[in-house]
Amino acid sequence: MKSTIENTVEFVKEKLEGAEAGHDWYHIERVWKLSAKIAATEDCNQEVVALSALLHDIADPKFHNGDETIAPKIAREFLESQQVSEDVIEKVLFIIKNISFKNRGEAPAELPIELKIVQDADRIDAIGAIGIGRTFNFGGFKNNPMYDPEIQPSLNMSKDEYKKSNGTTINHFYEKLLLLKDLMNTKKGKELAQERHDYMLGFLDQFYKEWNVD
């Protein structure tokens, strides 16, 4: 008989078949593995961490006209079908609703350790070489300009402004990616983020050299 985690893996793979490459099953798998690595260094409920990591992008609002109610509904229906306890379901749904970078201003001041872990893992997958690849993939998906020296990064955007933003892919580094290192919640998360952050800085240096044909 398969475990709840095994069933969740199958469910997520099926739901995300054909998804945009930066938010597909492989993104989920990396976040799941990173979450486990961080969770091993913290006192936490590892079932909540695993289920949240697997289900955190089951219906990313950016691909559903900004609707943030779809993911919790799908996750609840699936977890109930697996006879997961209501306590665990509530904790998983809380993480799904509060994990996003754009929602950070709405999240409670005190966050459960399980959310901190999965959030760190999700943010770590948004930076470094993988983060660069995902960022350019999504920029292409939206047909955003790669770079325009005349368009400055838009810092301190509101949630609505961030959701509607169609800035350049390079500006996204300054609007989000380079901010993530200092938003890590856990010691392990901070360690893992530093190397990836430094890699992005090196990439940007090289990008500008090549753009300017130095």
Automatic annotation (TrEMBL):
Q: Which PROSITE patterns match?
A: HD (PS51831)
Taking every annotated instance into account, which residue ranges of this chain make up the domain HD?
24-127
> Per its record, how is this protein called by name?
HD domain-containing protein
